[in-house]
UniProtKB/TrEMBL annotation:
Pfam families: NIF. SMART domains: CPDc. It comes from Trema orientale (Charcoal tree). The lineage of its organism: Eukaryota, Viridiplantae, Streptophyta, Embryophyta, Tracheophyta. Gene3D superfamilies: HAD superfamily/HAD-like. PANTHER family: DULLARD PROTEIN PHOSPHATASE (PTHR12210). It comes from the Eukaryota. The keyword Hydrolase applies. This is Dullard phosphatase domain. Belongs to the CTDSPL2 family. NCBIfam families: HIF-SF_euk (TIGR02251).
Amino acid sequence: MRERERARRERSRAESLSLALSSNLRRIPPPPIILLRSPKSSSPSPSQPSNQTLVHSTLEHCDDVDFTFIVFFNLKEHTVYVRKRPYLRTFLERVAEMFEAVVFTASQSIYAEQLLDILDPDGKLISRQVYRESCIFSDGSYTKDLTLSGVDLAKVAIIDISPQVFRLQVNNGIPIKSWFDDSSDCALISLLPFIETLVDADDVRPIIAKTFGNQA
């Protein structure tokens, strides 16, 4: 935990929190960077109920949740109730073996950092976090500009429930359906075989475009 806090202090102010996966830089040549969407709130409040790629969080009291935590915003205390998407741990562990995981979200750090500390307390699965400050706000929604990652876009992919967030680099985007509380959901684990095909790709964009029918 101390190493993670030290890393946070050293990060540039330009970084903002979100869940992403990036390539393991120790590999030569480096495999692609995979960016995964973390919990996001579209309002200024860090705890607005939301459906997510990896978890579902809400301010409404729930008994059937995996965990809760407290956030302070606008001088008020809020309890956030969180459900983890099925196979989340297995998914993150497998992806972390192939890529460097980076969280890229439109959430505010006051909320997202606490959530990620619970999901990955030892900092072994998520290597870096990018927050709302690195998103572009226009027409009432946030867009994630992948060029801010500073990495060759041929080696970058982002997984998100909303194509709007990767509209600037559509052929880097891997869509996934929204999730609320379906215990039979297997979208994360089902995506792993495709993600594995990106590891040694010279350019992930043609592969993603062909698979998901994206158009630049």
